[in-house]
Amino acid sequence: MRNEVRRLAMVTGAVFLVLVLYLTYVQAVTGEMLYLNPLNPRLAAVEQQTERGTIYDRSGRILARTVTNGGQLRREYPYGGAAAPVVGYVSPRYGSTGLEASRDGDLLGLGGWQRFLNEGLRLAGKQARGNDLHLTLDADLQRLATNLLAGRKGAVVALDPQSGAVLVLASSPTFDPNRLEEEWSWINDPAAGSPLLNRALQGLYPPGSVMKLVTATAALERDPAVLQRQFYCPGYLEVQGWKLTCPRAHGHLDFQEAMMYSCNVTFATLALEAGADKFKSTAALYGFNKPVNFDLPVKESQVPAHLDANGLAESSIGQGAVLATPLQMALVTAAVANRGIMMQPYLVARVTSPGGQTLWQFQPRPLQVVTGAAVAEEIKNAMVATVKGGTATAAALPGVQVAAKTGSAQNPRGLAHAWLVAMAPAENPTIVVAVVVENAGAGGVVAAPIAREIMAAALRR
Q: Which of 53, 60, 337, 438 is most buried when burial is the number of CB atoms within 10 A of its CB?
């Protein structure tokens, strides 16, 4: 009998200990996360009693602020649809998106000691105030990119390759968060083109020939002598009974000319020589098949896990099952621009209290060493030649050396997606741009002028 009682006591004690440890974990580790979950009904009540913090761009221009209207707090967005893909919206009826959702805790002052301070203010009947966000975004460039997309489905991403700071994150079509309630039916109409979809981060596209930057990296790392070789393009390449075609027969050409004229045959040949494992490992270093740690949700770019010869040839030119976000291809280009070092991308530079005190600040840091400086330099040189006399001449800027790569990604639904990635000034890049316009045709014709205008405006600043 005593043994049974002892066993029962031990089991009860163990269960009690597990319960204590679990409750401690919930309270100490996940408590704040659970409290800030958008599904927590208490947040709606807090929202009504708190002046939400202001969101600023890199120069202090207001992207989102709280105003009082008829005694009620209301959110106002001075840049309307241009900044909507970034700041999102907050609505008592439709919830929140963008930074308004992902940085809810900061904007409502619900993190750390501020949570208890603001609770005290609310209990005392006083107005609580959230923290302010200071972004790396350039509001003027963001508006310019939105205007250049002109309502067409697509996206523009621009960033500083030396720091990882995101300057532009434009998606089109967009919506006006100031008129969310009035336009909700239109926003959700299929004919509107999914304006709530942030194509810069959530759009997965076949990258087309801009993927050749990844293929070039794998090929040059495997064999630097590729630079001295001559290739021959008869207009197609037979791979296991399947023909991979080029836009035209390029004849004899070297590595740089293959990049200039975007020769599918040459890059497929290089990928087949390097092998599937080398191609996939290089893509992984660039960030494919990995989650992206960013201030907003990002879809994971994809390279197939299993590649036969046909799949490898297709993937090497950005076709087949390869899919990438515009942010991903901007990061690929930024790594080339930054001598093979990919920086951690970031959008929120710092968080400040209502009194202006800096509570948190991002410290730029390397994310991944993708390749050596020599390989990156050779790829950049080939991209410079592509602007001077290849498929990207429309990206050229007077007095500035630009490096770029075009892409025209075939897809089963209409015309090819027009891609262009670029950097400037090529000798020491301070801006990288990735542009995609859906079903628009040739990247050198449609995407290049958009990238050119963004780079020109950024360099003027």
A: 337
Closest to 88 in 3D by CA, of 171, 153, 150 = 171
Handedness of CA 399, 137, 200, 297 (dihedral sign): positive
Give the residue-averaged pLDDT of 148-165: 97
CATH class of the 40-135 domain in this structure:
alpha beta
Map 175-197 to HEC letters. Answer: CCHHHHHHHHHHHCCHHHCCCCC
- Write out the H or E segment, with its range, that includes residue 135: strand 132-135
> Do 178 and 80 form a contact (C-beta atoms < 8 A)?
yes
pLDDT tens-digit map of 77-92: 999 999 999 999 999 8
Q: Which fold has domain 149-347+365-460?
A: Beta-lactamase (3.40.710)
**Per-domain residue ranges for the chain?**
2-33, 40-135, 149-347+365-460
Give the pLDDT mean for 215-219.
98
Digit-coded pLDDT (tens) for 372-408: 999 999 999 999 999 999 999 999 999 999 999 999 9
So which residues are the catalytic ones? 209
Q: Does 40-135 match 149-347+365-460 in CATH topology?
A: no
- 107's enclosing H/E stretch is helix 104-107
- Within 8 A by CB and 6+ apart from 461, the residues are 138, 140, 141
